[in-house]
Amino acid sequence: MSTAIERDWTDRPDTAQQWVHRAREVAEVLAADAVERDRLGATPHREVQLLKDSGLGTLLGPREHGGGGQSWETAYRVTREVAAGDGSLGQLLGYHYLWAWAVRLVGTPEQIAAVEELYTAGNLFFGGAVNPRDGDLVITDEGDEIAFNGTKSFSTGSKVSDLTVLEGVLRGTDQHVFAIVESAQDGIVFGDDWDNLGQRLTESGSVEIRDVRVPWSGAAGYVDKVFRPLVYNTLNVPTIQLVFANFYLGIAHGALQAGVSYTTRRTRPWPYGGDNKDTATEEFHVLDTYGDLQAKLWAAEALIDRAGAELSEILHTERESVTEQQRGEVAVRIAAAKQRIADTGLEIANRIFEVTGARATANEVGLDLYWRNLRTHTLHDPVPYKRAEVGRYALVGELPQPTWYT
SS3 sequence, the chain? Predict the structure, then answer.
């Protein structure tokens, strides 16, 4: 991958279509040795540098600071393209987009301007230590500063990030506080314990936060130690849930294309079926399977694209104008999209073996990578609860209420 990574990426795309093409170029580079890198499990410093060098890291950043100035609709399409080449890097990029936007979700106008200039002009990459299933980090008010302390089981991006989003609760209150800090500091200790079935290169292991201090001016959305909530603040969960759906879609697309490539090049026709064909691509069961899987993937993509267009419009509108009804309706659509692509992606990653053949299970082929990646992350939060959210809306018109997972 070294030659491809060292190519000149200095020219920057201008239109959404050009950015998607750039993402496809990056995906081709990543796909070339994705299986080998997954087996090795090394921290993907060079791969994240590729995302930065290609300009994808600043896709959502303001143009005046050298960013792409693109919409979330484009960011979602870019995420899925990268995930088709490498699911782990697709996840890292999608999470980065969410954390880069976090200041817009909850920050003051002054904080938004400062953070967007910082990360865009500096081409900085985000990680986050915000796992809701853990106890919150404890925040102590120390006058002009706040201090974060505690641990998180998961911290996606960890060692490959320049900036980390922290979240905790102010001691003695129910006030949640987000802040952005430098990742490389003594007070942030990464556990180096991410050793899971899939998404192996996301650096999603544990982290310990030891007395990380932030001035009150860096507490996102707080003015004079008081937070003024908006419905817009709660869009963090629908936004990240649709990130999930898009990199699931990318992984599923990569799986189907890998199956097609193997079937057309290497799968032998079955000579004992009574209707023998000269090539595997002429066999009815092969055509039937690929037709079924492609149709299901297109259907999931259409649903995801509809949700992406709807959410992108909301994310780029005036924050004060977003209503609970808008938020709830798009959350339902995203719940539907996520559960559909989770089911479809896992089916594709499993059934491609039926039309590639026994020799396709060789470790060097690496078709297992797609199923392992999807199986790992689709367990992030139970898909049946997403179906139930859609069911409540369909049956009684009930909208999902904002939580850390809805």
Answer: CHHHHCCCCCCCCCCHHHHHHHHHHHHHHHHCCHHHHHHHCCCCHHHHHHHHHCCHHHCCCCHHHCCCCCCHHHHHHHHHHHHHHCHHHHHHHHHHHHHHHHHHHHCCHHHHHHHHHHHHHHCCCEEEECCCCCCCEEEEEECCEEEEEEEECCCCCHHHCCEEEEEEEECCCCCEEEEEEECCCCCEEECCCCCCCCCCCCCCCCEEEEEEEEEHHHCCCEECCEECCCHHHHHHHHHHHHHHHHHHHHHHHHHHHHHHHHHHHCCCCCCCCCCCCCCHHHCHHHHHHHHHHHHHHHHHHHHHHHHHHHHHHHHCCCHHHCCHHHHHHHHHHHHHHHHHHHHHHHHHHHHHHHHCCHHHHCCCCCCHHHHHHHHHHCCCCCHHHHHHHHHHHHHHCCCCCCCCCC
Please name the fold of domain 2-125.
Answer: Butyryl-Coa Dehydrogenase, subunit A; domain 1 (1.10.540)
Give the pLDDT confidence of 70-128 residue by residue, as tens digits.
Answer: 999 999 999 999 999 999 999 999 999 999 999 999 999 999 999 999 999 999 999 99
pLDDT per residue as tens digits for the range 336-386: 999 999 999 999 999 999 999 999 999 999 999 999 999 999 999 999 999
The domain 128-227 is placed in CATH, from the list 3.90.226.10, 2.40.110.10, 3.40.190.10, 3.40.50.1000, at 2.40.110.10
pLDDT tens readout for residues 312-334: 999 999 999 999 999 999 999 99
pLDDT, tens digit, for every residue of 3-38?
A: 455 688 999 999 999 999 999 999 999 999 999 999
